[in-house]
């Protein structure tokens, strides 16, 4: 289900997600003579955007709407909206106000959703991967052992982003035993309550039609490790070899980064897809509410514990531990919840520490400046 508001079917950009809500947010920029555009790629201070094509030219002979009809791709400089905040820099999926005459992005429209992960740096910064996304498609390869902990990690970030998660188990043709495949799907559904789980094969076409139908409305972002089959899946959905494909290593199923930038692509069945590079690390970023949704059954059980501050370790009257004892809640699931909750808490503590350090640094700089000014004033007073 798309998160967008009332659609504008006759607008050239409607196929890229333009609707009445974005049009209302853009109104002040329209009065200034700017054009709306959706960012399809960002690269080193410049970006590619798809905009309405107001230039005169022939229309389709049948008069029907076609993917790409009435739009064109332009390149613009991003210097005017560059910011030091990594969460406020433009990214693929953003809607922008563009000065087509000067070739500059003048402003970004407010985001509805944003998929953010923490960086691997020690600065505790977040990195935004995609904006204004309706569906977060989490791709995991069945060519290697299924990592349910990774599923839960991705789901926490997906729920936190505001998008609807969808788990796709790729390369299902490599699992030749139907019973084994059914068990893998069932295990994944246990780790992803309330989330659609599909087994898909780009080689045989299994599940592709169902996936295409689910993504036919709105914007989807394709996420997963290198070697998960994202680029191959994107090509099948697009109906063309739009993305380069490289073979994964047989020993561990890992692949090289086939996709090196985040690209927004129009799907022939409707909707748009943002393909992303393989993610080696997927750190949580302020994912408290996302964790609560990813582990909804644990959150529900926690409400039945005797103590409100129950840590679910060895407290008496703990409903969570009771569920583990009677087999209702898998112990692996609780262990994963604890691990991710601790990680999220550590990140929050580091972030707070960083902010405190920045405040102390700023305070010391002001003190030094004050002393310098006083010294200058003193020298001025003593000067004959």
Shape: globular
Task: Report the helical percentage.
Answer: 25-40%
CATH architecture of the largest domain: 3-Layer(aba) Sandwich
The poorly predicted ranges are 57-67, 245-253, 255-259
Could you tell me the CATH topology label of the largest domain.
Answer: Rossmann fold
The run of helices and strands is HEEEEEEEEHEHEHEHEEHHHH
Biggest β-sheet description: 6 strands, mixed
Explain what the structure shows.
The protein has 384 residues and is an alpha/beta fold. The protein folds into three domains: 14-108, OB fold (Dihydrolipoamide Acetyltransferase, E2P) (Beta Barrel), CATH 2.40.50; 114-275, P-loop containing nucleotide triphosphate hydrolases (Rossmann fold, 3-Layer(aba) Sandwich); 295-329, Orthogonal Bundle (Ribonucleotide Reductase Protein R1, domain 1), CATH 1.10.40.50. 34% of the residues lie in helices and 20% in strands. The chain has nine helices and 13 strands. The strands form three sheets. A six-stranded mixed sheet has the order 10-9-8-11-13-12, with helices on both faces. Strands 3-2-1-4-5 form a five-stranded antiparallel sheet.
